[in-house]
Write a structure and sequence with these properties.
Elements: E1 8-12, H1 17-26, H2 34-40, E2 44-52, E3 55-64, E4 69-77, H3 86-101, E5 107-110, H4 116-121
Parallel strand pairs: 4-5
Antiparallel strand pairs: 1-2, 2-3, 3-4
C-alpha cells in the first residue's frame, strides 16, 4: 500500500479511451484507433491505473476469457516517471489479482518488449521459445 509520503497511487480501474491512448503514446507504444479502444476496454478482466498527484501516468490490464486464458497487456508508465519501480508495482497488482481470482490451471501470457522481459521474469514469467511454443502476432489489417 502507499505510504503518506508516496506521491503515487495505484488502484483498480480501466482508463477512458482518451487516457488509454495518451498513456500508450506517451510511453512510446503504438496508438490504437479510438473505435477499437472503445470496443476493447469494456472487455478488461482486471485493470489498474497508476496516478501521480491525481493524474493518470501508468496503467496495465488483463484480458481473457475469465477461466482458461489470460493475457497481460498495455503495461506502461509515462517516461517522466520511469525508473522508479512503478512498472513493477503495476505488474505486481496484476499478478496478485491473477493469483487471487484466476484458476491455477489458467494459461497466463504476455509479450515482453525489449528489456521489459527482466521485469516480467521477476514475477515468474519465462520465455516460451525455444521450447514448444513461440509468441506470434498478426500485423494490423
Amino acid at each position: 500500500m502507499n505510504s503518506i509520503n508516496d506521491p503515487y497511487d495505484i488502484r483498480p480501474d480501466v482508463p477512458t479511451v482518451e487516457v488509454f491512448r495518451r498513456l500508450r503514446t506517451d510511453a512510446g507504444l503504438s496508438d490504437r484507433a479510438p473505435e477499437a479502444v472503445a470496443a476493447g476496454l469494456p472487455n478488461t478482466w482486471y485493470g489498474v491505473l497508476l496516478h501521480h498527484e491525481g493524474e493518470p501516468i501508468g496503467m496495465g490490464r488483463i484480458i481473457g476469457d475469465g477461466g482458461t486464458a489470460f493475457q497481460i497487456v498495455d503495461v506502461c508508465v509515462h517516461p517522466a516517471h520511469q525508473g522508479k519501480g512503478l512498472g513493477k508495482r503495476i505488474v505486481a497488482a496484476l499478478t496478485e489479482e491473477l493469483d487471487r481470482r484466476a484458476p491455477a490451471t489458467a494459461y497466463v501470457s504476455l509479450i515482453a518488449d525489449g528489456p521489459a522481459r527482466i521485469l516480467y521474469e521477476r514475477f515468474g514469467f519465462v520465455e516460451t521459445a525455444p521450447h514448444d511454443s513461440v509468441g506470434m502476432f498478426r500485423p494490423g489489417n
